[in-house]
């Protein structure tokens, strides 16, 4: 992998702000780099002994790519080498390795085996308590350590509860040469793979769907299915065998033989069955004093059908870094609250899009699809892809700050066109979706132009 040697554009002078960032996933890494560019000194804390991301691929849409293009243009050539050209940009986890190498090059300290067991704040600082007994402090702490972040106790007193969605997703990724050893797989995907083509395919089933991503020497597949208590769990540890997934495919029935052949080629112990838990939108994303802020999965979980979780996590990191620069050291606690105000409604709307997408895929109307195949192919539209998150923070910081301090009117403009945000929750949404009269919000979803 090429090592980037050029400094980022639009770098700010050092602000004197010092931050701890808990979690070195895609949200934490991008936030650390953007904080560094915006003049903030950061230390990254990662619970794992080394950087070895699990999973298969992440979706990096145009708004996230714009962060890199605007400020880290020397990355683009290298990032594009990792991209699957399948209508949406799918990146292998080498993208995270590129970010962690850049963090090291810039001198950002990364502490591995740093398991955060507690977060705290006092008037002028915040900190974390590590499992090894060490306590670290800074001007603020940014929690990017995922769904089960211990920051929830401080931020919202652990009042955001998980509700079983009733669905899980099998997913895996492994070398294409293993899959292509099967004759059926080779016949279906071999010619395109040998020609350097990449494909992303949907397979729709009753209350289920499967995906295949094939290219660049790698194949990935996934199956979104009804929850199976024997294999499903809310973590990304890959330890199941292909026959576990095959049993679920067979239970649904009617799948393409080539898809089933592909599943059978999966290495043993290489499949994860991730239980998807639903959580209500979380408007409170900062601690009472404002010195601990949550971003990414720590404060908003996305269904995989949203194709948006990584995008919003990266937007979070860039937004918070920009707000901290704009507010300066004397307004850190206000800056974290401004960031949350600018982000919540947009992220909540994007979460809702994910639910709508799942509903569309799992209850496909084939007569409608025959006339308009984009009904099942559409991903996040212009509102998501066209957003410039840093510029939005620059344009709206002071107005949002006045709204918080003085109560002056403020309305976010980073929502889908003609869409008025309304509060929602899982319980109400489930009831609505169970109704035979329920329809997917076209105002929310149709943002292609």
From TrEMBL:
It comes from the Eukaryota. Residues 19-52 form the FAD-dependent oxidoreductase 2 FAD-binding domain. Its cofactor is FAD. Keywords: FAD, Flavoprotein, Monooxygenase, Oxidoreductase. It holds the Pfam family FAD_binding_3. GO terms for molecular function: FAD binding; monooxygenase activity. The keyword Amino-acid biosynthesis does not apply. Belongs to the paxM FAD-dependent monooxygenase family. This is FAD-binding domain-containing protein. It comes from Bionectria ochroleuca.
């Amino acid at each position: 992998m090429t090592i980037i040697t050029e400094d980022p554009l639009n770098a700010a002078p050092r602000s004197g702000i010092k931050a701890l960032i808990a979690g070195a996933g895609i949200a934490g890494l991008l936030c650390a780099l953007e904080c560094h560019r915006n003049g903030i000194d950061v230390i990254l804390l990662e619970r794992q002994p080394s950087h070895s991301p699990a999973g298969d691929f992440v979706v990096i849409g145009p708004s996230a790519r714009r962060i890199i293009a605007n400020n880290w243009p020397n990355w683009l050539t290298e990032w594009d080498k990792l991209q699957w050209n399948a209508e949406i940009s799918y990146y292998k986890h080498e993208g995270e390795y590129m970010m962690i190498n850049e963090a090291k090059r810039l001198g950002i300290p990364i502490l591995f085996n740093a398991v955060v067991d507690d977060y705290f704040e006092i008037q002028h600082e915040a900190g974390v308590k590590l499992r090894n007994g060490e306590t670290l402090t800074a001007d603020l702490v940014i929690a990017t350590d995922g769904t089960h972040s211990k920051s929830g106790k401080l931020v919202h007193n652990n009042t955001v509860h998980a509700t079983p969605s009733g669905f899980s997703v099998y997913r895996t990724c492994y070398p294409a040469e293993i899959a292509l050893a099967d004759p059926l797989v080779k016949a279906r995907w071999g010619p395109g793979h040998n020609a350097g083509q990449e494909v992303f395919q949907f397979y729709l089933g009753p209350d289920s769907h499967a995906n295949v991503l094939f290219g660049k020497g790698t194949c990935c597949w996934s199956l979104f299915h009804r929850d199976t208590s024997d294999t499903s769990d809310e973590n990304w540890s890959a330890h199941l065998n292909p026959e576990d997934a095959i049993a679920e495919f067979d239970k649904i029935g009617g799948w393409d033989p080539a898809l089933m052949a592909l599943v059978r080629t999966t290495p043993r112990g290489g499949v994860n069955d991730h239980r998807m838990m639903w959580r209500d939108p979380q408007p409170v994303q900062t601690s009472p004093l404002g010195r601990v802020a949550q971003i990414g999965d720590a404060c908003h979980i996305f269904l995989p059908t949203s194709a948006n979780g990584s995008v919003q996590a990266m937007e979070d990191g860039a937004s918070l870094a920009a707000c901290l620069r704009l507010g300066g050291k004397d307004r850190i606690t206000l800056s974290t609250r401004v960031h949350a105000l600018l982000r919540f409604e947009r992220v909540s709307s994007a979460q809702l899009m994910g639910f709508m997408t799942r509903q569309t895929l799992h209850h496909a109307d084939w007569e409608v699809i025959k006339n308009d195949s984009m009904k099942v192919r559409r991903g996040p539209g212009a509102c998501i892809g066209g957003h410039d998150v840093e510029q939005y923070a620059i344009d709206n910081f002071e107005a949002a700050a006045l709204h918080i301090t003085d109560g002056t009117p403020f309305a976010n403009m980073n929502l889908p066109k003609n869409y008025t945000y309304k509060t929602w929750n899982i319980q109400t949404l489930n009831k609505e979706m169970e109704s035979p009269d329920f329809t997917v919000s076209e105002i929310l979803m149709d943002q292609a132009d």
